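Instructor's aside before we start: the two examples that follow are unrelated to each other. I chose them only because their records fit on one page, so don't look for a connection. First example below.
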Amino acid sequence: QHYLSPRDFLDFIRKFLSTEEEKRNALQEQATHIRTGLTKLLETQEQVAQLNKEMVIKGEVLKAKDEEANMKLNMMVEKQNEAEQKKAQAEKLTVELAEQNEQISVRKVSVETELSEAEPTLNAAKQSLAGIKKSQLDEVRSLQKPPPPVKFTMEMVCIMQGEKNVNDWGEVRKAVAKSDFIPSLLNFDPMKLTEKTIKQVQDNYLSKTDMNFEVVNNSSKACGPLYQWSGSLIKYALILRNIKPLRDEVAALVVKSEELEVGRQEAVKNVMELENMIKQFKSDYAIAIRDTEMIRTEMEVVTKRVARASSLLASLEEEKVRWAATSQSFDDQMATLIGDNLIAAGFLTYGGIFDQKIRRRLTNEWSDCLENLGIPYRSDMEIISYLSTSVDHLQWRDWGLPIDDLALQNAILLQRFNRYPLIVDPSGQATNFITNKFAGKKMLVTSFIDVAFMKTLASAIRFGTPLMVQDVETIDPVLNPILNKEFQKTGGRTLVHIGNEAIDFSPVFVVFLITRNPFARFSPDLCSRVTMINFTVTPNSLQSQALSAVLKAERPDVDSRRNEVLKMQGEQAAKMKDLEDQLLNKISAVQGNILDDDSVIKTLEFIKGEAKQLNLAIDKTKEILEEVKAVSNLYVPLAAVMTAVYFSLEGLSDIYFLYQYSLQFLFEVMSKVLTAAKPTGPPSNDVATAKERLKFLKLSFFTEITRRVLRGLKFEDKLMFIVRLAQISTLESPAMQLTDPEVDLLLKGATPIITESSTAIINKFKESLPNNRIDEALAKQLLSLSFVSAFSNILASMTGSDQAQWVKFMDDPEPEKIVPVKWIKPNSGGADVNERLVLLQVIIIKALRPDRVLYALEMYITVVFGSKFDWRDLSKVDLKTIVELDSKALSPLMLCSEAGQDASGKVDALSTEMNAKLLQVSMGSAEGYTDADKSIAQAAKSGSWVLLRNVHLCPEWLAALEKRLSSFSSCNENFRIFLTCELHPKLPLALLRASEVIVFEASTGIKANIQRFYNSVPAARIDKQPAERVRMYGLLAWFNAVVQERLRYTPIGFTKKHEFTEADTNVSLDVIDQWIDNTAGQRAHINPTDVPWAALQVLLSQSLYGGRVDHHFDQLALDGFIQFTFNAKNYSSNAVLAADHEGKPLISLPDSLGRPALEAWIKALPDSNPPSWIGLPVTAEGQLKMIMAQKILTNLSILYGSAGDSATDDDESMEGGGSKYLFDMVERWLKMLPSESSLPEVSPEQTSDASALPMERYIAREVTKGKNIIKYITKEIKLVRSLLLGEVKVTNALRELMNCFQKGVIPKKWRTQYVVSSRMGLSTWIADLAARGSELGKYRPVLAKSSSPAVAVGKISAVKFWIGGMFLPEGLITATRQQCAQVNKWSLEDIELFLEMGGNATSESSQETVVEGLLLEGAKWANGSLQLSDELRCSLPPCKLKWQLKTARQGQVVSFPVYLHDGRTSLVVQVLVASPPSVPPLVWAQRGVGIILQVPV
């Protein structure tokens, strides 16, 4: 039981906030990384596509460049040729030009020689001309009438200048007035002078002798130089004209030379241009070649890059697809983040204490809540993958954590707690895991019983050392400040108060609270302070461990490879995840384009290369693993068997509190089997050899588990467990197993569907065998069998050629050996194997001969395990063997026995035999506790034995003992501790799991009980006078044996197992001694009649044995035996101790009174005795076996499915996925139950109408209750059907119903509707309810309004009441009593109830009520009278319940109990029945006679 508190809710909120923030940040970061990486990949893909396009363009450019280069080359060659031609031409012209220039030079010399004579004069004249001042010219110009020399000179100058009107002085003056007059003269070209002008000037002016330079110069300083110029110029002009041909020749030569020069220059220019062009062509060609090479190089680089990028993109396609899908899911994940983390936080807060199945249920229920609230969540979210990584799993595996879902979930809880964890660790897995995890931090281990606990705690808190506190079932208050985290901040220090001391608290401190007790119950306060984590083992985990243990012993090579491969797989998965993360991080971290950074591509290629190699390694690992699996799978069936056995051992605790087995117990058995049966030769891969070896190992395992377990089981459960082992042994072969319908028939009972057609079939079954061998009940059982495929031919077989075999089967004392089976339909069309066939025979025997089911089950065991498998021999207790071979120093040997039994004498004898020192302490007092502690401490050191007696008297001290023993670090290996106790439900379960439990039960049978009694009485006491004492002891021994033996036949012998103990016998001996001594005095003999028998009988009846009895009819039976045994007649010869129902003696006392005679008599008694010796019908033994068989099958149904051999009850299998068989069964039930419309109508007033008769009110209430029950049950069944169809969601109530349906157990709420036998199964209960519902229809006339009480009484009298099928049977008795008293005006106290058997079964008055369906046990009704009989049970015809006045009683009557069912736990009423005078009333009580209302199941 686990408690919740507001602290849990606050922790839930904290965990939700932290996980939500963590997951949100991680999701955002991952989204950024993935989307960036995806974008980079897409960009790279686009770039590659663009580069491919550019490559096409560059190819075209490259082609054009090649063509251009070729063109440039051709043009360069062409121009080179042309340049050479031009260069030759230019050289030729250069030669011609040189020759021409030579001629010109010669001619020029001649011209220049001639010109050199006149030229200086001309130059001097020009110089003089230039020296003329402006004032001098102005003076000439200002002259109105110039002097003749002036005029003469000026006219000559003007003529030379080409002036026309030189005779007009005014015109001359104008020419002189010009600003460029002098410059024009200085620049005057002599060649402009015509011959005419020259002649005119020479003749008219220069030839004048009276005019010379001096004359003119004297007339005018300006005209002198002009005159001189004119003369010089005319002379120069004449020379020029004389040399003109030469000059023209020179000019022509010059022109020609210039033309040649131009041609040469043109040629040179052309050559230069061509050379430049060639140079340019060379340059262009070089550039083109360079560009071509660059393009080609670039194309090669880009091609390689594109190829690498394409290859990289191709290799990243898987990642791209995954990242794209992941990227698309980010929005969905973000949308479901709140819902996902609510579930995760719920798991972290509330899930830890539960097992895996309940955790899954909680998760489903939380999901339903979120769905109802409209909060999105991921339906496919796995807690393990959501809250941990593969790297975590690898690390956890290295630390010794089993890799199954529950263990991984628990590791998550140990990693994500706010409150310190309290771990339930019965297997030690968590302890081992945590120890390895903190191995480097020197974890401290302590417990509350450790004397140094406080010191260890303070040290761990101060220095931050991890702390493990073991055996925590209650909390020491000193830990509360730690668990509550009550810290104080003082001056930078964090303090916590431990007791009265303030200790510095290290922030890295962590404490783990651990208990090995899976049944520990923690207080609500403790539950609120810690995180509860349940480390119970799971089937998958245990099978893996078992397989590993088997492989280590049988195939160590395979086991080593298997472990290496499994480890390698984990490492590879972690490395692959790391490589994927590296790849994503590298891509997302790229700045710019991926293709621009060659190092990035290289890195990505490296990572992908690593991943490729890793994938190859993974594939190789898978191949190796397949090879290993091929070998290890051969051993899986044995591991599965071991696992199934363990969980069946766990299931035994549901049957009886004493049956507690730890995982260590299984490992010890496994180790012993595998060690003792180690293979001698080398390992073989031969399948046939391996299977033969496995067969041997499996039988060895079953043998050892049988030897170790049976000694700790009660006798009635031993056969059940062996049958369960046989079932487990056949699990690997479906052909050996039953189908679901067949399993239901065997374990849960049959459900007959009674319809019109089936009624006819029932009649055929009843008529199938002669002499009424098949009654109504058996016919219904056979009808149910016929609905199952395997038994569908049973009616044809019984009425056909096999009829004689069936008759023999029904009559044979050992029918299990001759069951007709040829007609059985084989499963799946093949022949049934022996194992399955025997189980089918068990089903047939259960239906027709239930008294032989036990023997049939033993046949099944023999078929499965072989005839050499003697489980009875294996179950024998050899205490010496147990001590030597099976016990350990710190594992107590718990010797449990029934009340009154004591096994301590066996320990005394063994210690003497083995020469071991034995320290003994009787428990039950404070002194005993102190002595026990001292003795244990002393013996643990010295190697002595300790025997603690009656430890059931101190259950609290026992719980501490288990912790103390587990805390011992070492002890002497010879130390043993024995605990003797009674079978007491308060024995600590943890101690039972840690102990070797041995159950000692009293031997059955009269002889064994007498011998045990006789051996407990000292011989001296027996021989003490008077001699009659021996006979009295013999009588007491017989009486005690009868009482003890009748307890075996509960509820027939007694209605329940009264606690008659050895103390009752001892006190009875004391009382007998006292009366005998008082009577005898000092005499050697006494008269038996002198013994106060009446007083002795009263003491035995009321105080001693009778003091244990609280049931009236059990007291009557006890009184009958006391009176029959303790009387003077039994001192006569041939005194009869027991007689059969006809009065024939069965056993007599010896005539002699001495001890030798008594011992001889005891020795001569048979080992077993018939029930008639103890006053019961002979058939009671069969009934006992039937009850035991039914109990075995019921207990088997509890164990069935504990190891995976039945349908799971997971929610997934319930919602829309239930088994078809279960659905069909539910449909059958719904058809069986009457509809509401078919039941009588009842108004609320009818149940409380004061004017109505009591029986009318009762019937109205009965019908109302029946209708309500049927309506409720029908509604529940329909809900289950809807669940199986997937129309409704699973709830806790529906889940509980489904579990009950699958196990064939009546749901608790259904069982409270009305009382039935505790042995009744669900299918039988449904059939019973349907029958009860059909019975309600007969009450319609009574419910109709009656005109008068007489009419009402008449209607009621016409009804035959099936009292066993009524929902309120006690109400019928009360109503008939009230009605009888009311109608007859009698007092309730004055009337009593009679039961009239046989006769007219018609009610003739208001005093009578006809009832049917009654069974009589312990006697029979025959020939109109009640008779003793060897028959256990007979059906009674319709009977009358009749109330009459006590004063009207006539003849001998006997009071019989009326029980609701054969379990005799519900006494309905006592009835008086007429009995024959020949039978004393107490005899009926001794026979256990009673009336049963409900048909036994």
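Example two begins here.
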Amino acid sequence: MKNLTLLSQIHLARFGRPAGKDIHHSVDPETGHVYVAYSTGPAEGVLIKISDLQSPYPEITELVTFPPENDVHADQWGQVVGVKFLVDIQAVCIIFSHGDVVLFHNEPTETGETLEIVGSVDSGISCMAWSPDEELVIMVTGEGSILEMTKDFDVIAENPIDVEETGEDVSVNVGWGKKETQFHGTEGKQAAQRKVDTSSFTYSPDDDDGHRLSWRGDGTYFCCSSKDRRHGRRVIRVYNREAILQTTSESVDMLEHGLSWRPSGNLITSSQRLPHRHDIVFFERNGLRHGEFTLREPSDTIVKELAWNCDSTVLAVWLQRTAGSCIQLWTMNNYKWYLKQELLYNDDESAGVANFQWDVEAALVLHVVTQSGSYQRNQYCWDTYINEMLAPENLGTVAVVDGANLMVTPFRIMNVPPPMSAFTLVVPYAIQHVSFSTLHHGDDMAVLLADQRVAFYEMADKTTRPLPEPKLLGLIELSEIPSVAVRQIAWVGSDTLVGLQYDSDISADSIVVIKLAFDEESKAPKITSRTDVPLEGLFQRLYFNQTYGDILLQQADGNLMSVEIKEDEEPKVGKWMEVHRLPEGCLWMGTTRIGSGHIEYREKAVIGLARNNRLYVNDRLISSETTSFCLHNHFLVFTTATHSARFLPLETSLSEFKIVDNSTLPYDESIRRVERGSKIVLALPFSVNLILQMPRGNLETVAPRAMVLSVTRDALDKCDFRTAFVTCRKHRIDLNILYDHNPKVFMENVTEFVKQVKDVDYLNLFLSFLRSEDVTQTLYPLSGSGSSLKQLQNPTQPYTRSKGGAKGAPISPELAEKVNRICDAVRKELQTLDRNTYINSVLTTYVRKSPPDLESALLLLAELKDQDQALAEDALKFTIFLADVDRLFDVALGMYDFALVLMVAQWSQKDPREYLPFLNELRTLEKYYQRFKIDDHLKKYQGALQNLSQAGEKYFADCVAYIKQHNLFKFALKVFGSDPVKHKAVLLIYGDSLSVNGDHAQAGVAYAMAGDKEKALEAYREASHWREAVVLAQQLKYDPSATAYLARGLAEQLKVDKRFTEAGVLLAEYAKDSEEAISALLEGRLWSEAIRIAYLYNRLDLIVTHVTPGIADGHHDLMESIRDMQEQFDKQIKRLREVRDQKIEKALAEAAEDMAPDDGLDNVDMMSDTTSMASGFSRYTAANSVLSKSSQSSRSSQYTARLKKRHDRKRARGKKGSAYEEEYLINSLRKLILRVDSTKPDVHAMLQCLAASMSLQRAKALQQEFAKVLQDIEEHMHIIFVAPTEEYLTKKKAVEDAKNERKKLIKQNQTNAHLMSRHEEAVAQAQIAQLEEIAEQEIADIYGEAPVMSKETWDVDLV
């Protein structure tokens, strides 16, 4: 679908007066200077330089004339036969027919001369060809020999051309592949038996008898075309770099002199004249014929020369016609040859072509010199002629140029693969440029012909099918002045045509504005006025935006100018708003409006794509790997060199218009993978279709998610629910978007939704897809700004996907009720229309509710059964399809409607032998007992108990057993709350159940409520609720001994629970045993309370026998504990200092080692012969290559559960010298400090007792020891617990981030597994493995906050 557009022309009217047609030129690829050598007489010549070609007035300099002054052989130089600029030595090599080889140096040589005669060939030279690397030169001598020399002109080989041998690589017949066994198509087997008589082959009458040389692009082979005098025909011989003959072409009748080897190396091109046609023929390197194509020329046309451009995409053919000469540019795609451009040269005044050649670096720059001594430089670019009008009625017309044929295809209606097309428009002459107008939504065309005429086509009828061919309105003539040539046109209005033209007389560009008038009847165009507007400088692009009316001109450096055309005013050329230029010259450009809101308030933007794949928006670089782009009504769509298509939304601010990394989103609609090398032909506006062309030429129409969603959102904004639904259904978009896009609008237009999406199947499909999830936040978040109100209101809401409120992803109450709300609204609307017609949809609204309202669905079926049995059966079958039949059966059974149960069972897969006996058995039971059985079968235990309680008194024992079986005690208390006897019975069994389960406290309450005080007392005793127990003992009239026994038992339980104060109260007050009470208090270190009890009960003897020894023992234990804590603290704080000192010394040693130079590494090749280029390893770097990780992707995690536990145990032990010793010491000291802090109350109580008993020495010793421990802890607190370093925080954060990222990647891979290739899956697994390695790093926790110690007073001042 590509065409060649002529960007710029430079035409020097005349640089000299050549005496003949032998004019040769060469281009300096570094500076762009053109060197032209030509003959001015029989033995005279001149060399000129043309420089500064980009300016309107290039400079022409005469460098040297031939022969040089004082040359004794001035009459023997002959004609110029070849010129070549040599980059390495900055010199021009000129070859003369009499054999002289001359070098002209740009800078003087050591001898001070610029002209150097390097040698001469006595027999003369007929042609010359330098190798692509300029290391070798091949010449054909006058004797018909191949002469090969180095760049220093040292002879390597000289071999005759016309030899009998066919070469070293000639094909050998080894017995297979015979012609008789090959397929010959429609010619049949007779073709295999036909003998070709090569003896009749002869020369072409157009042959110029000369030799031709051509090198392959890599410089390993060259070919020579010459006449074979022995056989009377022309042949092509292929030589290697040493000038040794390799192959000779097969015999071809009337093969001509033209020769060019395609730089890519696969084809050698020449021409062949046949009686009825003229062909361009191709040969392989082995000399075999390899196809051809026919020129569309009359029989008297002569093929002068052929030349491939440097990237092998365009073949230039120089033709000599009776009326003049021309150069045709041919290209091949999908095995069809297209004529893309034709350059015309009039032979009047010797203006015909003398020589031409392609630029050696710029692939689409053609240099031409004419016989009259003029020079032309034509620059082309690949272009697509498409209708870019942003209108829904735009047919998506694409035009492809093929000579005088314009192949047109409307892609909105049909996708016709090339080389075919929907229509082929035949015009009178070869086509040069095509422009689409604004008429009929942009589908009308203006076609510029090579002879400076313009043809106008109209496509008015777009509704008739099949679509009629565009109608030719007529032609107009543009060429008023012969020196002015229009190269690009733009049909900018119904009556205005703008052209970009070049005037060779003044060497300047200008624009021409032509006003047209169309005849009312025939619609034939005619010119009413013509205005030429001169331009400053040379321009390469005339761009017209059909939608916004922008007319722009672009210069080669990216400078932009705007053309303003108004009625009754002269056209004006000026700056285009704030955008004055692009950062560099862009071969492809477009304009658009970026921003949200009305189109008038959006910002103007120009999009430019440079030759180096840089994509610009105004002066900002968007991408540096763009291969093609197109403007859609919602997106800037472009393809990249990484084989993906990107979609940048236009509904965003210009400052935020850039590529955004959306890799965190589960589905990124802004990017789509495409086939390697794909380029955009057209992005159909207001459509989902993106047309791509593959490198081999075939077309592919895709529907990217971004464009599908844009069409869906546009339809929903217009409440066009059917279009939105059909689009989503066709392209597998989640149908929840129909509601989630704008819930308020959807609920307000449910009636319209049902009317538009009226098909029952469509409604059922929509209802079946509903779920409690906002897909505009999870699946399809809107890129940029747009019409989604929720996205604008909640821009920071995280994109978390939940399915039905999955664990870890809570959903809002509004979202939780989404499905129910939609189902209720749709059902209400369907019931107002025709319930029977939409019965399946109504049932779907019941089934899809959360939870499913199957009971209402079955009630509707039961009601429908009485009205229409057949309809009810069909509806039931549909319901069974939606819901589990077993669940439907159970719901029907739970409704106690046996007729409904049988109807469900009959249309299910259930075996009647399974359910009929069960139903028959139920029919024989009493009403409530029957319902009890049903509910029990359905495991509705509370309902079953309710029905069983109503079945009669005889079933109360069954009720009790059922309550116990299903743990229905609390519900049973409600059921039997009105019957005191049964209520108490339930309480007793509830208490028994609680006691068995160990909840003795609640069991005691249940027994007490039931009036069973003995069981209540026992339950309270087991629960250690001594207050309730002794109260019940008093109520049960326990005697003192029984009460004392109960109290002693309870006291023992309290002591086990460390409740020594309560145990002392029980023993003293209820057991009347003060001695045991004091012993219990002393065991709990409650010395003051023990003294109080002794004095309360006047047992002063216990002070001596129990209290005083107990205080002494407590003092001894505290002193020992304090000393142990002091010793542990001193030992661990010392070791902690040692560990940290060792860490610092180790770090300093490693730093010194890294800084020390390693002489052994000098002059060492770090990349050995066996080193993998994909490896990320070296002496100084870690493995960071994805490929190096992919080989480990199949391994399991480094730590299994068992190894992890073992590792944790080692970490907890903190072995001396291990990596976790410091962490262990810090944790141990933290526990020790907390232990010291918890000892404060015991120390305080002991000090008070010692002070009261005047044991001041012991009190002082205890207080000093404990104070020392606290002081040491306070002094070392800042040493033990230090603030974490940045490195530690970074590492810890990296571990946490790696864990989270790993989870996210695993989830994404699971979601997109079916869309990923093997390579992508391997890369993803490698990334997960790499994240696992980071996440599983164990970082010693050597930092942390210091423990908070209590501020309560623990010491005694008087001590």
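Residues 785-809, 1158-1199 have pLDDT under 50 and may be disordered.
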